[in-house]
Amino acid sequence: MPPPADIVKVAIEWPGAFPKLMEIDQVSACVYVFGWPSNILLMIAIVMKAFFLVFVLYVLIQSSSMDAKLEALKDLANYSRDVTFAQEFINLDGISLLTQMVESGTDFGDMLSFTLTAFVELMDHGIVSWDTFSVAFIKKIASYVNKFASDISILQRSLAILESMVLNSHDLYQKVAQEITIGQLIPHLQGTDQEIQTYTIAVINALFLKAPDDKRQVSCWVLCIYIYVSEMANILAQKQLRSIILTHVIRAQRAINNEMAHQLYVLQVLTFNLLEDRMMTKMDPQDQAQRDIIFELRRIAFDAESEPNNSSGSIEKRKSMYTRDYKKLGFINHVNPAMDFTQTPPGMLALDNMLYFAKHHQDAYIRIVLENSSREDKHECPFGRSSIELTKMLCEILKVGELPSETCNDFHPMFFTHDRSFEEFFCICIQLLNKTWKEMRATSEDFNKVMQVVKEQIMRALTTKPSSLDQFKSKLQNLSYTEILKIRQSERMNQEDFQSRPILELKEKIQPEILELIKQQRLNRLVEGTCFRKLNSRRRQDKFWYCRLSPNHKVLHYGDLEESPQGEVPHDSLQDKLPVADIKAVVTGKDCPHMKEKGALKQNKEVLELAFSILYDSSGQLNFIAPDKHEYCVWTDGLNALLGKDMLSDLTRNDLDTLLSMEIKLRLLDLENIQIPDAPPPIPKEPSNYDFVYDCN
Closest Cα to residue 649, out of 657, 99, 8, 217? Predict the structure, then answer.
């Protein structure tokens, strides 16, 4: 006879004792005890279980038995990922206990590693403020970082703690900055462990990101920090750090993983953001030092000798000569070119670039100026105006002054190959602009058209991710104006839209079929699932969670992962479920609950564009930040399709246009009785003899 349905058998294990099997009557235990309903008591039981486990571990991590203490710390590091457990442990003042254990300095090896792991996991829940930690604790964590021979796991967690301290507390930033220098972090970049290198660059980025600038000086200590930041910026500009990152990270004989790519991207953005101050500084026409820069540009271009100041009769002649030369230099205001630099952006940054070009690429500078000054006024490429507009364009391309995206991995290796990479980038592009101007046979009326072509040339070259500035220059050589015209023509032909009435009617007829095909593709992608990254107290977490739709399209399965998966994650390994029928709405961007809660994320436009949330029940929510724009469109389209709503993303519109165009072309070919094979042609076999030459001419 089977046991009653209300009887549950529970096994209870205790260290050092035999396991005990107990039978619990759910009816008598839950309904009649205190008269409370079973679901409430079940919740109480879960909380009590967490509290009991917390209490046991809290006692055991203080045990005099090293074996019991080690096992307890190992379990603590594991269980601390759970928010319910973490809350109970914190309520017992567990964080203070862990910090005291670290400050005591008595634990080493695995014991210290598990202690730091538990600390990181507990703090990542955002329950405890980072401002509560002592200088002694910070010094101890910093000492682990300063010891290059430390255990790798201890070093990794110490770097993670320092990063979180800097990012989450202004006071701790100051204290950490006093304990850690760039010089102490450099040896960790020279190692072979990419994870340690990643955490090291993350700490450098955190120090840069949270460093106050002169616009945020509200107290005397901020000024002290600003001096430190200025020194830090100079160190970053030095060849040592740049070359170490280039040699040991970017050009190391191994693939760069996504997290390292993200940290390199952040470092690239923060380095370029050092230009923001000059970019937003207007030139003061009365500042003699600034005016001298313009005089220097004139002197280098025309090898002009200084006129004697005591010759009053030559003043008018000198003014006339200056005006003529400033016109040749391509300034808009020939009389007072300082007025050309009063617009921000690009402000004084444009003048800095021009002077750098004139001094470090003097022959090219003189050639461009003299070449254009010898042309007719209508056909000359104005160097001054071009430099100002080009600097503004480059700042827009590199997003100078914007916060780094939380999800972007788009770093460019070539910017790590030179100490003055932005200036060199400008020098290459200003020569490209002059070359394109000549190829287009442009006049002054064509200035904006030339700038559009130059921007396209630069963007197309950057997408190839050249490994050096010389390679970037070589890519641009192959992207002449003629080549750009060919590319544009080819793209227009591929995007050709037939506008005749029969074609439009055919489009309208087959559009529902194509939309259904896109819908099925989106749902199939949701069934495959996607790995999402968690964002928490640190800017970017090395934790992941996975979400996928069940094959019958009725349930969303999701759960946490230890690491990023290599393929699909099975349904049965995902702990949580959400019935599709319970979904009330899908919201995006600033309407998402997690975007309203996190002020730092709200400021970042790119994160807002990747955020979406599923709302269910009265207050339930499942929050996402997509890994990229494509996944964002796939998921928002798929969820809207599940709810019977229209798919409105740009990806759907592009897919619809592409598939409609292909279908129409195939049907037109069919009308011409052109046979379309069912299978693609075979791939040609590899040649057995490579001893041949192809004449490119």
Answer: 657
Sign of CA dihedral 392, 394, 400, 405: positive
* pLDDT at 239 > cutoff 70: no
pLDDT in tens, 433-483: 999 999 999 999 999 999 999 999 999 999 999 999 999 999 999 999 999
109: left (phi over 0), alpha (psi -120 to 50) or beta: left
Alpha-carbon gap, residue 340 to 384, rounded angstroms: 9
Question: So what's the pLDDT on residue 601?
Answer: 40
Q: Please, which residues have CB within 8 angstroms of residue 94's CB and are 6 or more apart in sequence?
A: 54, 58, 122
Taking Cα atoms as reference points, which of 466, 424, 470, 430 lies closest to residue 450? 430
DSSP string, 286-298: T-HHHHHHHHHHH
C-alpha 402/C-alpha 419 separation (Å) is 21
> Where does residue 411 fall: left (phi above 0), alpha (psi -120 to 50 degrees), or beta otherwise?
beta
Dihedral (Cα; 332, 338, 344, 350), 10-degree rounding: 80
What is the distance between the alpha carbons of residues 373 and 377, in angstroms, rounded to a whole number?
Answer: 8
- Dihedral in degrees, nearest 10, Cα atoms 653, 654, 660, 666: -170
What is d(CA 80, CA 76) in angstroms, rounded to the nearest whole number?
Answer: 6
